[in-house]
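We now fix the convention by which a protein and its fold are recorded. These numbers are not coordinates but entries in a learned vocabulary of local backbone shapes. A record is reproduced here so that you can trace the correspondence yourselves:
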Amino acid sequence: MGKIICFISDEFADFEITLALHKIRNVGKKDVLTVGYSEEAIVSESGLTYKPDLVFHEAMALNDIEGLLIPGGPIRNQKQELTDFIIKLDEESKMLATICNGPQYLGRAGLLQNRRFTTSCSVERITQLHVEDPFPRDNYVDKRVVRDGHVLTAKGRAFVDFSFEIFDYLGIYADENEKRELFRDIMDR
């Protein structure tokens, strides 16, 4: 059984990934593990507390990873261990799925230089924060979800679309009708 690793850090936007992780684990029957910079508990944007399952040196030793999921959250500094992990998975063509401000980590790792991507983080927001823009804006696509090979990016408000793009990539639903019914059930107003 393959593993999906989810990076968590202080104030990460947990709502953006709950649908995806729920179905990956319960329908796709994949192990879902969280990774953090330390073993310390982390408080998400919603105020819930999470304790990482792994730290990066442990995650780097795993050999059955199918992908990395990075939720949004604040624009923040990036540690080398996250960059190294992203580059390793990219070299292995593993799924790299990021949403909202999450693509910042792929940008800093150099993965968006030759890939189309989207993000919720605008140039104006970067200017307000007085930080270096981690995004190569020439490759930015103003869409809800962008898939470029094994790299999936999404705007934060598109967390349902993002989840379904992940389901397609991982082949979670073999039956198209079941997937379509779930989408209708979630999105039918």
Q: What stands out?
A: The longest strand covers residues 31-36. Strands lie at 3-7, 31-36, 42-43, 49-50, 54-55, 65-70, 95-99, 145-148, 151-154. The chain has seven helices and nine strands.
